[in-house]
Amino acid sequence: MSPSTEKKPAKKPWFRRADLFLLIGIAVLSAALFAFFFWKDTRINSPMLEITSGGKTIGVYPLDEDREIRIGDESHYNLCRIENGTVRMTEADCPDRSCVRSLAIDRRGGQIICLPHRVVLRIIDGTGGLPDAVAE
Amino acid sequence: MNQNSSVSRHQSPGAGFFRTDTPAARLSLLGLLTALAVIMGYIEYRIPLPLPVPGIKLGLCNIVIVFVLYRFGFLRAFLVSAVRIVIVGLLFGSPISMLYGLGGSLLALLGMRFLKNSGRFSCIGTSAAGGALHSAGQIAVAALLTSGTAVFRYLPVLLLAGEFCGVLIGLVVSIVLRRLKSQQNQGII
User: Fold this and answer.
1) pTM for the complete prediction?
2) Residues A112 and A131 in one domain
3) What is the rounded CA–CA span in Å between residue B52 and residue B157?
């Protein structure tokens, strides 16, 4: 793109070898990250639902009890439901509502995030957190 | 030096709308391009993709941003991008969406400037890396906002999506740059 190469009649190629390496590099990086998170999820022994809002943990709940949890205050809210071992965000008054569209999460791991309200639902390993977990 | 020379390079005397030979011409052209980027952002805002992962967009407006990066250099590309993000944020978004946009855009443009100036990559590779970096920047802002690392789980899929969209954007920009150059050489615009 410098003016000196601009004057040459030879056209710049659309796609170069370095581009290919770059594309493969990014793809490999994301595959590695994907594998890492997958591996991390397989190490969950006793899954619990952890809810954080604005970085503060507001609760850790077992997955085998159905319940509905309201997160938020007068200005905004998210409604999260645990049902048959799966967790989903059923309602929210955030502008994009991508948390409601998010796939349900269950004992295999995963997370649901509401970015506008800074709410994170995620499956954590509850081992050691509760005495009951050891008995299982 | 690279940027300045690329600005004054195409002097088509007496020619039409795509002139970059005076400050006023450059300013009005960049204003037009910013408006185009805003409109593209609006079109995308009206067609949300129903995907379970937040943050995946085609990023049509990045056609304009990458184009400005190649024709006007890093600084002007960042200015157009920042003005676009503020306008779109005020019109359809929120202060938080502006933060995401600025974080992603700054990281993407810095990376693309580096790749472009290295001279080894074509527009497509540069744009693909820009797309991936845009995702990474947004995730970094999200991690700061949620004060946690949970959002990093979205990184693999967002990196791939950014790469894919970046390739498409880069292809379009390549075509535009080539057309523009050949038309300018022929004195059409």
Assistant:
1) 0.81
2) yes
3) 11
